[in-house]
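User: Please run a holo structure prediction.
Assistant: Happy to. Please share the sequence and the ligand.
User: Here you go; the ligand is zinc ion.
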Amino acid sequence: MYVTTYPCHNCAKHIISSGIKKVFYIEPYEKSLATALHDDSICGNIDCKGVQFLPFEGVAPSQYQNRFRCVTTKKAAGKFVKINLAEETAAYAQLLDCFVDYEVKIVDTLVENGL
Ligand SMILES: [Zn+2]
């Protein structure tokens, strides 16, 4: 099974009972209680006997177009123009901090602004 986000504990329960053996998730879900509540049935490596919850390795479908958007050519005056990649900016900013750090920064900003 391929899912967009690491399953929550309720979805994990249904996945386990359905007999699915491998789940590939694209995005982590740090707040999921699936691992804590179903640790007897779920594991995160390919050597275990339980249902394997493994991170998807590759470019997520939703990010594929964003990632490679600049590599294509632009259309100008009815003709395609080759893009100079050295002059292009990234299609989107890559977030390098974990989401918890971003949540703290957002809350700090809200508090500073009295919101
Ligand atoms: Zn769920």
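Residues 61-112 form one domain.
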